[in-house]
Automatic annotation (TrEMBL):
GO terms for molecular function: flavonoid 3'-monooxygenase activity; heme binding; iron ion binding. Heme binds at C447. Catalyzes the 3'-hydroxylation of the flavonoid B-ring to the 3',4'-hydroxylated state. Convert naringenin to eriodictyol and dihydrokaempferol to dihydroquercetin. It is a single-pass type III membrane protein. This is Flavonoid 3'-monooxygenase. The keyword Transmembrane applies.
C-alpha cells in the first residue's frame, strides 16, 4: 500500500486543524467591538444618516457604548460613553494622537500643514507650542482682555442702536468674535464696525465661507473610505473644497501680505510674532516656519475660533429665552455683582457661578463639535476587551456622552443647577478632565483655543443677558422656537436666532 495517500490525508487534516485553530484564536484574541452589519463596498456609511451624531447615538443604544463600523475599507470605532472615551483619550491618548487621512485636511487645510490636522510629531508640537505661548497662554489672554471687552462693547452699542428692531443675532456675534480674533492675531479688525442693517458685506461672505467649511468637513466623503473611488469625487466634495480653499487662501494671503507691508517695529500681535519666528529660524530647516504654515494657522484660528464661539452663544440665548426663570436668575446675579451702571468685564466672570453654570449646560446640550475630529490608532490596542486594529479611525460622540441617561438625570432638560454646589455634577468641569462632558475634546489633541473660547463665550453671554431683555418676533413663542440642528462638523442652528433686544441698563452705558 502506498504511503502517499496517507501523507496527503494527514497533511490535509493538519492544515484543516491549523486553520480552525487560527480562526478560533483570532476570534478570541481579536474580537472586534459590536456593530451593524456592513453593506458591500460602502460598509456602514448608509447607517450614518443625515445627522451622524444622532444616528451613532441610536446605534450605541443597540450595540453598546463602544461600536465598530466599517466605513468603506476603513475600520472605525465610536466611543459613546464617558468611561469608554476616557480609555481612548486618557489611557491610550498617545496611541490616538494622530489624524487619519481626509479630504478636508488635504484640500482645505493646506495639505495637513495646519495645527488641527497635522500628523502627531515634531512639526505638530512646534505649531502647538507657538499657539500655546503666543496666543493662548494665561499671559496672552490677560494681555488681550481689553480687546475682547472692546469688541463686545461694539456689539452692545450696535444692538442698542437699533431701537428694539429684530436682529439676526448669530450674524452680529460672528463679526464680534472675528474682529476680536483679528485684533489679537494681526492688530486690526477684520470687518467694519457692526451696525444694524449695515453689516460689512465681507463679514457676510466670511461667515458663509466658515459655515461651508464646517458643512463640507462634516461630510463623510466616500473617497476617504474607498480610495479606489476617490478620483470620481462622487459627492462633489473634493471639487467644492478646492474652490473654497482658493477663496480662503486669497483672504489669508491678503492679510499676510498687507501685514508685511506695514511697519512691524511696534506691533505685538500674533502674526508679527509668526513672521519674526520665520525670519529667526530661516536657516534651520527643522524649525523653519513657512508662509503656508502661517496661513494654515490663521485658517485654524478663523474657522475654529469664530463660528464655534458665536454659535454657542446663540444656543445659550435661545435656551435662556425658552427658560425665563433661568434668565431672570442670571440677570439677578449680574445686577448684584456688576450693577446697572457699567458693562460686564472679564474680571467679573469668576464671581458669577450661576452664569458659568449656564454656559456649562449650554456646552453640554449643544457642544460646538458634537462628533469629535477623527483620530487614528498608531498601533493595535485593546479597549473593554475588544481588539482595536492598527490604523482604525476613532470618533468620540461628544453629543451622545453629554446626554447619557446613566450619567445625567433628565439629560434633555436645560438645568444649569446641576453644576452648582449640591447639584448632581457640581465638581464636573468642561476642560477635558471630566469625560461626562468634553465639548473641547481631551488629551493631547484637546482644542488649543479652549481657554480663549471659554472666556469669549462667557463674556458675550454675560453681556447680552446683563445689557438687554430679549423677546421673539411677533407670532413666535418660546415653546415653538425652532431648536433643530443643522448638518455640519459644528453644531449650527437650523434656523438663525432672530430676536428683539431691549436695553435694561443706564443709558450712558451704551
Amino acid at each position: 500500500m502506498s504511503v502517499f495517500p496517507v501523507i496527503s490525508v494527514s497533511a490535509a487534516v493538519a492544515i484543516l486543524v491549523f486553520l480552525l485553530l487560527k480562526r478560533f484564536t483570532r476570534n478570541t484574541q481579536y474580537r472586534l467591538p459590536p456593530g451593524p452589519k456592513p453593506w458591500p463596498v460602502v460598509g456602514n456609511l448608509p447607517h450614518l444618516g443625515p445627522v451622524p451624531h444622532h444616528s451613532l447615538a441610536a446605534l450605541a443604544r443597540t450595540y453598546g457604548p463602544l461600536i465598530h463600523l466599517k466605513l468603506g475599507f476603513v475600520d472605525v470605532v465610536v466611543a459613546a460613553s464617558a468611561s469608554v472615551a476616557a480609555q481612548f483619550l486618557k489611557t491610550h491618548d498617545v496611541n490616538f494622537s494622530s489624524r487619519p487621512p481626509n479630504s478636508g485636511a488635504k484640500y482645505i487645510a493646506y495639505n495637513y500643514k495646519d495645527l488641527v490636522f497635522a500628523p502627531y510629531g515634531p512639526r505638530w508640537r512646534m505649531l502647538r507650542k507657538i499657539s500655546s505661548v503666543h496666543l493662548f497662554s494665561a499671559k496672552a489672554l490677560d494681555d488681550y482682555r481689553h480687546v475682547r471687552q472692546d469688541e463686545v462693547s461694539v456689539l452692545t452699542r450696535a444692538l442698542a442702536s437699533g431701537g428694539s428692531k429684530a436682529v439676526n443675532l448669530g450674524q452680529l456675534l460672528n463679526v464680534c468674535t472675528a474682529n476680536a480674533l483679528g485684533r489679537v492675531m494681526m492688530g486690526r479688525r477684520v470687518f467694519n464696525d457692526s451696525r444694524l442693517g449695515s453689516i460689512d458685506p465681507k463679514a457676510d461672505e466670511f461667515k458663509s465661507m466658515v459655515v461651508e467649511v464646517m458643512v463640507l468637513a462634516g461630510v463623510f466623503n466616500i473617497g476617504d473610505f474607498v480610495p479606489a473611488l476617490e478620483w470620481l469625487d462622487l459627492q462633489g466634495v473634493a471639487s467644492k473644497m478646492k474652490k473654497l480653499h482658493k477663496r480662503f487662501d486669497a483672504f489669508l494671503t491678503e492679510i499676510v501680505e498687507e501685514h508685511k507691508r506695514r511697519s512691524s517695529d511696534e506691533q505685538s500681535d500674533m502674526l508679527s510674532t509668526l513672521l519674526s519666528l520665520k525670519e529667526i529660524d530661516a536657516d534651520d530647516d527643522e524649525a523653519k516656519l513657512t508662509d503656508t504654515e502661517i496661513k494654515a494657522l490663521l485658517l485654524n484660528m478663523f474657522t475654529a475660533g469664530t463660528d464655534t464661539s458665536s454659535s454657542t452663544v446663540e444656543w445659550a440665548l435661545a435656551e435662556l429665552i425658552r427658560h425665563p426663570k433661568v434668565l431672570s436668575q442670571v440677570q439677578q446675579e449680574l445686577d448684584m455683582v456688576v450693577g446697572k451702571d457699567r458693562l460686564v468685564s472679564e474680571l467679573d466672570l469668576a464671581q458669577l457661578p450661576y452664569l458659568q453654570a449656564v454656559v456649562k449646560e449650554t456646552f453640554r446640550l449643544h457642544p460646538s463639535t458634537p462628533l469629535s475630529l477623527p483620530r487614528m490608532a498608531t498601533e493595535s490596542c485593546e479597549i473593554n476587551g475588544y481588539h482595536i486594529p492598527k490604523g482604525s479611525t476613532l470618533l468620540v460622540n461628544v453629543w451622545a456622552i453629554a446626554r447619557d441617561p446613566q450619567q445625567w438625570s433628565e439629560p434633555l432638560e436645560f438645568r444649569p443647577e446641576r453644576f452648582l454646589p449640591g447639584g448632581e455634577k457640581e465638581s464636573v468641569d468642561i476642560r477635558g478632565n471630566d469625560f461626562e462632558v468634553i465639548p473641547f475634546g481631551a488629551g493631547r489633541r484637546i482644542c488649543a483655543g479652549m481657554s480663549l473660547g471659554l472666556r469669549m463665550v462667557q463674556l458675550m453671554v454675560a453681556t447680552l443677558v446683563h445689557a438687554f431683555n430679549w423677546s421673539l418676533p411677533e407670532g413666535l413663542t418660546a415653546e415653538n422656537l425652532n431648536m433643530d440642528e443643522a448638518y455640519g462638523l459644528t453644531l449650527q442652528r437650523a434656523s438663525p436666532l432672530v430676536v428683539h433686544p431691549r436695553p435694561r441698563l443706564s443709558a450712558h452705558v451704551y
